[in-house]
Amino acid sequence: MRSTVGWQVEGPSPTLRRTRLERRDLRPDDLAVRVDYCGVCHTDLHAVGARHGEAGSAGRPLVPGHEFTGVVTETGPAVTRFTAGDPVAVGNIVDSCGECAMCRAGQENFCHAFPTLTYDGVDRHDGSTTLGGYSREYVVREAFAYPLPAGLDPAAAAPLLCAGITVWEPLHALGVGKGTRVAVAGLGGLGHLAVKIAVALGADTTVVSRSSDKADNARRLGAHGFVVSTAPEQLADARDSFDVVIDTVSAPHDLGPYLRLVAMDGTLSHLGHLGPVTVETTDLLVGRKHLSSAGSGGRPATTAMLDFCAEHGITADIELLPSARVNEALDRLRRNDVRHRFVLDLSDLD
Ligand SMILES: NC(=O)c1ccc[n+]([C@@H]2O[C@H](COP(=O)([O-])OP(=O)(O)OC[C@H]3O[C@@H](n4cnc5c(N)ncnc54)[C@H](OP(=O)(O)O)[C@@H]3O)[C@@H](O)[C@H]2O)c1
Ligand SMILES: [Zn+2]
Ligand SMILES: [Zn+2]
Description:
By secondary structure, the chain is α/β, with parallel strands linked by helices. It contains eleven helices and 17 strands. Helix 4 (163-173) packs across helix 5 and helix 4 (163-173) packs across helix 10 (299-312). The chain is globular. Residues 41, 43, 66-67, 92, 162 line the site of one zinc ion.
């Protein structure tokens, strides 16, 4: 086993502590990655919160982090696409069965045998719990590592690997392009990248936010419109006016107000807080509307998203913190106090 250092949830406390961790020895198709920058996704907060108080989880380690960039430090003998020293990026899935219809179609994120998650997943070979990117080293199959395109700042590019790909796939699949009317609900980590990507695709893009103080930010990101979600008259004015609504709201919420923004035959893509939702069917019936969802992305889409972002100079707007301030970052994310993504600098773990 290899040894590294990371930030782990231990026992019943939601506080992450600096801990020595083990990584597997390299398999033939593995890379060892020195993790330099890791984004703080709201899913990390959900995971820490769920673990806190979850019965029977005491022995299962939780090291969050599933959008990171770094440098390859070592390669297994069967690795062909990377050599030591290459800049590399890793997202929220690190393996899949490789054989099912979804994997064969390049949608490893929908693998019928469930993709291996970057953290709190189960390794397909040794059954161990995967430990995430809030650590100085990660060992990953090369098939699930991506060359980081030149020109992308490695710290600001890290959030592309979860937030970016999660919004890219539905925007792409729903055919968003020049003139498509897109609304993005929730201007957080996912939302601000959805705005940048939609604008770069040529869409007429509007932000729907409960935070009226984010209007200037929205415009700076390229949005053409801004709707305050807590103002009923603004929601009424925007009724039936978007071909695509991308919902990134991180808390359980009523989909009705967002469905009513969708234009006839348009789609609400619900990407945010996952779990049961109730839908008033007349909100779909009136206007023949579609309700959809998505999550993460397959390998071809991830590569295409990185190329697109490199071509258009798209990275996240980040607040970079030394990893020792990870608990502060999670606290502030919980309070919606971030513009628009925290990224941890892991070099303080050396
Ligand atoms: N589908 C997937 O594969 C996938 C991947 C990554 C993340 N996620 C999920 O997507 C969600 C967003 O993640 P993120 O990292 O972008 O989070 P984030 O940075 O915290 O952004 C979430 C945004 O949602 C809005 N919001 C939060 N609480 C709200 C509430 N109670 N009512 C209305 N709006 C609220 C806020 O925007 P405003 O202030 O603008 O209203 C906030 O900025 C999380 O639930 C995360 O777990 C899903
Ligand atoms: Zn994420
Ligand atoms: Zn599969």
